[in-house]
């Protein structure tokens, strides 16, 4: 599904066509806010839509927001090498009054750059629900950026059975 991704002033925007859809993520100090822009009006994506799939992919609206990166309950569970990079494995849990579809997440964070290399999000039943894995990074003008990420839905969500074929997020070019 082609889209244009822009980043400006703490905001990421996914711009889709056919049909037109704009989703934006605003990074706040202690949280993020996911919004949808339609007909010139900006509306917050509510918790009721967090586990809906974006345009039929394995990516949910909550996944775009990467809300688990803001969860306050975190601890280092170990270390592992991912794509030749030494990573911390960090376990995060949502706050007690969470509207997340996930009960916890495991994050693989590059020790040197702080980049997310992999994330596994777990459902309320304790089983893995979604896996995000960086397949390849790219360095552009001295900055490391995502080149390709694989997203896998591992089980059914509230809105229906999961599609077992992975979704790939690929960055074809940077302007």
Protein traits:
1 helix; 3% helix; mainly beta; 7-stranded antiparallel beta sheet; 175 residues
What does this molecule look like?
With 175 residues, the protein is mostly beta strands. Helix content is 3%, strand content 52%. The protein has one helix and twelve strands; from the N terminus they run E-E-E-E-E-H-E-E-E-E-E-E-E. The protein has one helix at 61-65; strands at 3-8, 11-16, 21-27, 32-38, 41-44, 73-82, 85-93, 104-110, 116-122, 128-140, 143-153, 167-170. The chain has a seven-stranded antiparallel beta sheet with strand order 6-7-8-9-10-11-12, with no helix packed on it. A five-stranded antiparallel beta sheet has the order 1-2-3-4-5. A hairpin with a 5-residue loop joins strand 9 and strand 10. The two termini are 19 Å apart. 18% of the residues are buried.
Separation of the first and last Cα atoms:
19 Å
Please trace the helix and strand order, writing H or E for each element. EEEEEHEEEEEEE
Report the total helices.
Answer: 1
Q: In angstroms, what is the radius of gyration? A: 16 Å
Strand arrangement across the biggest beta sheet: 6-7-8-9-10-11-12
Proportion of beta-strand residues: over 45%
Shape: globular
Number of strands: 12
The major beta sheet can be summarized as: 7 strands, antiparallel
Work out the helicity level: under 10%
Low-confidence stretches: none
The pLDDT mean sits at 85
**What structural category arises from helix and sheet content?**
mainly beta
């Amino acid at each position: 599904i082609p889209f244009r991704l822009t980043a400006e002033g703490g905001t990421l925007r996914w711009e889709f066509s056919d049909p037109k859809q704009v989703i934006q993520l605003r990074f706040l100090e202690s949280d993020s806010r996911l919004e949808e822009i339609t007909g010139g009006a900006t509306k917050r994506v509510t918790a009721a839509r967090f586990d809906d799939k974006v345009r039929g992919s394995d990516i949910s609206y909550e996944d775009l927001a990467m809300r688990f990166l803001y969860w306050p309950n975190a601890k280092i569970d170990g270390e592992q090498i991912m794509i030749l990079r030494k990573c911390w494995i960090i376990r995060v849990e949502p706050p007690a009054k969470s509207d997340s579809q996930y009960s916890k997440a495991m994050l693989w964070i590059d020790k040197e750059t702080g980049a997310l290399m992999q994330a596994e999000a777990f459902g309320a039943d304790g089983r893995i629900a979604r896996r995000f894995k960086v397949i390849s990074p790219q360095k552009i003008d001295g900055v490391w950026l995502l080149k390709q990420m694989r997203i896998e839905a591992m089980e059914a969500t509230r809105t229906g059975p999961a599609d077992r074929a992975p979704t790939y997020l690929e960055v074809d070019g940077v302007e």
